[in-house]
Amino acid sequence: MLLLLTGCNSLPDSGPTEAQVNHAQRNPQKNTIGYGIVQVTPELVSLLAGEAPPALSSLDTNNAPTTRTNNDTVGPGDVLQIAIYEIGSALFSPSSAAMTASSASGTNTQPSPSTAASLPLLSVDGSGDVDVPFAGLIHVTGMTTDQLAETIQARLKKKSQSPQVLVRIASDIANSVMVYGGVQRPSRIPLTPNRERILDVIALAGGEERPSGDERQPQTDEDYVVRLIRNGRIAEMPLKAIENDPAQNILMQPGDRVQLTFQPRTFTVFGASEHVTQMHFRTPTLTMAEAISRVGGPVDARADPNAVYLFRFENTDVLRRLGLPVDANAPTSPVVYQLDMMNPSNYFLAQKFFMQDRDLIYIANSSSNKFYKFFGLISTIIAPGITAAWIAK
């Protein structure tokens, strides 16, 4: 009997049994990362279903601008187009001298028409100043185009007859956002007084760039992650989550940086299943029941159906609500969820337990598997001898 047990323990195996998993979790020398084992229950499924991913709207709530921006102000780096209309003796018209001479000689009896002059494009320097001929140096940061036009006009009134000024931002740098990554046209997107939102600027950049790949692995909006960088703070969400929740389609602010990244979601399966593999979700959502069925489920000959484990780095807030010890400074902590597939009611729970990217499913080996494996090995060894003896007889 001792030889039999020794032989069973020396056989290779694909992974631990339920008893070995539980023992390793309680052993501090083996459980060096401090994971806990949690049974899949209706309460757990409800708790996980109520958890929302980090929201982009948090950047608006906790870091709202002190003043509402209408995206129509001038700032450093902008290029301005200024047009000046004058009557009579004009400062900026090339024909003003000829008109003055003609008027003095009396040859021109018609009233002087208005003249228009477009100044060369003027750039706003890093200090927010622009130098306008005959108007001098003007600090323009924070001004609207109408306010800047009024300022220039006021400075020209003593030098020109009834000047009228129009200002347009030819190249808007101050009121713009950068959109890059997995979009068709990475570029700087100027913001307008219409106040674009994050989905608007992604669309203006051409939308997500669909990489050519395996047709069996279709790309969905859930496989794209939107990262927003604002004033040194970062938030990211799946593109689909923003599309489904209007509150996350937040207004853009000048200086925002938006990155779109293609991150195909996968899960991995180990242990006593038909296939040990890594698989893509291929659908917008995936439940634990669907994931297990895709790999053929537990193998009858060697699996322990009441010990199906899901390994995950879970949000620490969730684990804290489950009563597990967590590191307060860590955003995520390891946890193992156990599903007992011998309980028929748990099949309903498996249909509501949603998989996350990089989840790992392990189907434990049955404790009796080693005995049957050892018995099969002995049968393989002695079967040829029995057959030869029967033939010789």
UniProtKB/TrEMBL annotation:
Keyword Membrane (UniProt): yes
Membrane topology note: Multi-pass membrane protein
Location relative to the cell: Cell outer membrane
Single annotated GO MF: polysaccharide transmembrane transporter activity
Region Disordered, annotated ranges: 100-119
Signal peptide bounds: none
Pfam families per the UniProt record, alphabetical: Poly_export, SLBB_2
Domain Polysaccharide export protein N-terminal residues, every copy: 69-169
Record-level GO BP terms: monoatomic ion transport
GO-annotated cellular components: cell outer membrane; pore complex
Domain SLBB: residue ranges: 268-363
Key words of the record: Cell outer membrane, Ion transport, Lipoprotein, Membrane, Palmitate, Polysaccharide transport, Porin, Signal, Sugar transport, Transmembrane, Transmembrane beta strand, Transport
InterPro entries associated with the record: Poly_export, Poly_export_N, SLBB_dom
Family: Belongs to the BexD/CtrA/VexA family.
Protein name: Polysaccharide biosynthesis/export protein
